[in-house]
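User: Predict the complex with adenosine monophosphate.
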Amino acid sequence: VQVLTTITETRAVLDAARQSGATVGLFPTMGALHDGHATLMRKARVECDVAVVSIFVNPLQFGEDEDLARYPRDLSADAALAESIGIDVIFAPSVEEMYPRPVVTAVALQSLAATMEGASRPGHFTGVATVVAKLFNIAGPCRAYFSEKDFQQLAIVSRMAQDLSFPVEVVRCPFVREPDGLAMSSRNVFLNADERAASTVLFRALETGAAMVLAGEIDPDRVRGAVASVIEQEPIANIDYVEVVDVSTLAQPATLRGELRLLVAARFGATRLLDNLGVVVPEQH
Ligand code: AMP
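Assistant: Here is the predicted structure with adenosine monophosphate placed in the model:
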């Protein structure tokens, strides 16, 4: 795998690839790559001629009191994993390369970004959308891989690509769990043994909510209440939010119908975990 750190070199390599007829696949990450990331890398590898993983812990998307400084970083392990999958290029710029001057231009977001992660982390999605816009402009025409693990981010990035006419096809991918149900995340390394054991409550709670919907419950508040009460049985867990939304609007519908997503965020000690699960309301006969 070729590790590039400058925008100029990365553009040159990808432009040359496209000129010779190759398709480009981009997988944007913050590094500390795990088996969940590996599945998206494999998909990009199979579906595109040139597969690029970007690794950049983007300061713009972290709040002042968040974990920017302690976010795990291990470029040599990431490069080894990418190499083993056959990734062609890692783009791993420094903060100075991406933001040589204070940023005065950013992507403004409306409805999709106001709730959930947007409400809990003011400015987060502006930071995400701005760095993704830069990565799209650096990579050029490509397929870009994002997972449902960060469901609201995926919705915002897909919409941004359309609204701003980026020559990028955003590819929506499922995400990977540990065998006990915990969604894989680079932040899971921060969990101590008790927190790690407690963390499986999130998936159990989501499954409880999804089962209620499948059994015919159409009141969103009752589903949210049931999901929350499963999480509350775990004293280590501190709920940030529990939501049930329509997948196209990310808003809570008056009654549950169509394609829905249950989403939760909760703190386990100092570590904030996200999880979500899709459920489609069965047609009434
Ligand atoms: P990050 O972990 O924040 O660097 O995310 C980089 C990309 O990997 C995003 O598209 C995430 O949604 C995706 N991702 C994170 N966790 C997983 C997982 N468990 N399985 C698959 N993809 C994931």
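The pocket of adenosine monophosphate is lined by residues 29-30, 36-37, 39-40, 146-147, 149-150, 175-176, 183-186 (CB under 6 Å).
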